[in-house]
Write a structure and sequence with these properties.
The structure is a single chain. With 470 residues, the protein is mostly helical. It has 2 domains: 96 residues, no CATH class; 358 residues, no CATH class. It is built from 17 helices and no strands. Helix 3 runs antiparallel to helix 4, helix 10 runs parallel beside helix 12 and helix 15 runs parallel beside helix 17. The longest helix has 41 residues. The chain is globular.
Amino acid sequence: MSSVAYSPRILVGMLLSAAALAVGSVEAPQVILGAIAIAAMAWATKRSAEIPLVLFAGLLHLEAIAVTNLAGKALMLVVVVLLVVRRWQLGPSQRRQSPAFAVSVASVGVLSAWVIASMSWAVDVERSSAALTIWLPSVLLFLAVANLVPEISWLRNVLAALVAGAVVSIGVGLLGFSEPEQGRLVGGAGDPNFLAYSLPAALVLAALWTLKRTPDDASAAKRTAIRIGAGGAVIFLTVGLGLTGSRGGLVALAMAMLGGLLVAGSRSRSSQSFLGLCAIGATVLAAVLFSPIGRRFFVSDGGTGRDELWRVAIAITNDHPISGVGLDNYPVVAPEYTRSVGVLEQVDLISLRPHQSHSIYLQVLAELGAVGFIALLGFLGSCLFCYRLAAARFWRNDEPENSLLAATAGVATLSVLVGALFLPLLFEKRLWLLLALGPAFERCSRRRMTKRIVVEPLDEQRSSRQEQLL
């Protein structure tokens, strides 16, 4: 049996990681379990990050469950450590970055620098510091996935895991393992709105595998099984979305369906795709109309305080337009504005039980100001552009299935960003992972095109030599 050889640098990295985990366990004893999980997973996968990355993606919809939440955090550490180890093993030619890729990485660096700087003027520095401990791991996850995922098959499996995780999360709620919130399905996410925001993304991805041809190397039975499973997931996800009663989720679904129609129609057999997506829309409508909480979609109740939170965020932005009030300090400053923004019917959401602004964009405007908002838009735009660039490059490289996958994943990410209009998703790992897949797709498409450019001339030379010998 062959053994896995570790270089001195890898051994040093493992020792440093173990030391960091030991220090962390003083404050958080649960980290010991994370260390055990990391060691076991690293040994089992022999330094390949694909398995923990796929498992991590699948558990992101189950963060309200203590066991899966802890497992997800451990897997996230595994992914980052193993991908960084792989980075050390790459040659100089494999580390080169395209301009689009470099812009996405640089933009998240600029945004992170401003986030850290905002702590210097934050009212509650301790609260900002706590938020920073959530922000920085998300950035590390983004950088690791964006830089180091080597194969398109990894990306396909990660997206499939996101769909599977969404289905399982809905199942957790339907089977009674989580208590409904005012009759609304919360699933494994712990909140109906936070469950709903990523369901349209999972739905459009499931629709892709339902309507489109599976890889050529799959057997007929496997292709049929994939289509049946994906079709069942589409129905399950639409019903689950209706049961969440989330109007923001419904808006995100409209974006996902519109993008899905455009992508499907521009790539292949548009009639089949259009009919399939229309069937999805009919299923969603039925789920909305006949669900026990269907009336919520048609009753104007001010978003149960969301519009008041928005008004306060706008008022804070007007008073602090450039720099904002500091990372995660909106709930700290908001009570000062209860008398200056008009009549508030849900004042307890601002003064007694302070909530976030219920919009990632207003959250950033209020806490990080115009500078942070521009940095955020640049970061989001660069990740979406990477999806577009990857889809176009795969298409030119005569890989239509990969092109369609990249385009659909881009639409899924865009639907989440539309859902972020109604939720403060700045620290949500599902969003960070989808954003990281954009540069990862771009990197994989560039590598495959480069490989084809190199390999095809060699094949032509071999053919000409064979002809000369004959």
